[in-house]
Amino acid sequence: MQRPKTTTTSQTHGNTIAARLGASRAAERYLAVRAQTELLIKPLSAEDCQLQSMPDASPAKWHLAHLTWFFETFLLERFEPDFKPFDPAFRVLFNSYYKGVGEQFARAQRGLISRPSLDEVLAYRRQVDERMLALMVQTEQSRDAGDIWDLLSLGLQHEQQH
After folding, report:
1. What is the DSSP letter of 54?
2. What pTM did the predictor assign?
3. What distance in Å separates the CA atoms of residue 148 and residue 53, rounded to the nearest whole number?
4. For residue 91, is it left (φ>0), alpha (ψ between -120 and 50) or beta?
5. Range 22-27, long-range pairs (CB < 8 A, 24+ positions)
6. What is the per-residue pLDDT across 15-32, written as a single tens digit (0 to 9) for each?
7. Which overall architecture, per CATH, does domain 9-161 show?
8. Rounded Cα–Cα distance for residues 126 and 150 (Å)
């Protein structure tokens, strides 16, 4: 039985973006980590990504969105001029345990989140990736560069741990 393939978004648009940015090391590392995460779900269907095997283990779709939420919440919201969230509801849905940020959706019930769809989560990742890459370009001349690079590194390590 052949499974439907899930397109890896970071990988498909990443090479073009990295070239446009002069392939900076930060952008390359960011894109490589994000693409690796999506490679992990490549053999899975949207339905597979929705499953929650037990209350303490969140579904793959939730992890994809949560990792993106981290970059949106801790980097874009703080440093992007004219920040607008992709979807304000994601602030609660994909917050894991950051109580200082706000409320969280119960971990044991994350498998019940039917919306956003996997395609919408992947679109969220693409949009945040584009915005993060733009932020990296702007960071070169930013007085907040140290904080941005530290948070970027933390976010990438966070993603690799998931």
Report:
1. B
2. 0.83
3. 35
4. alpha
5. 24/136, 24/137, 26/136, 26/149, 26/152, 27/133, 27/136
6. 444 444 433 788 999 999
7. Up-down Bundle (1.20)
8. 22
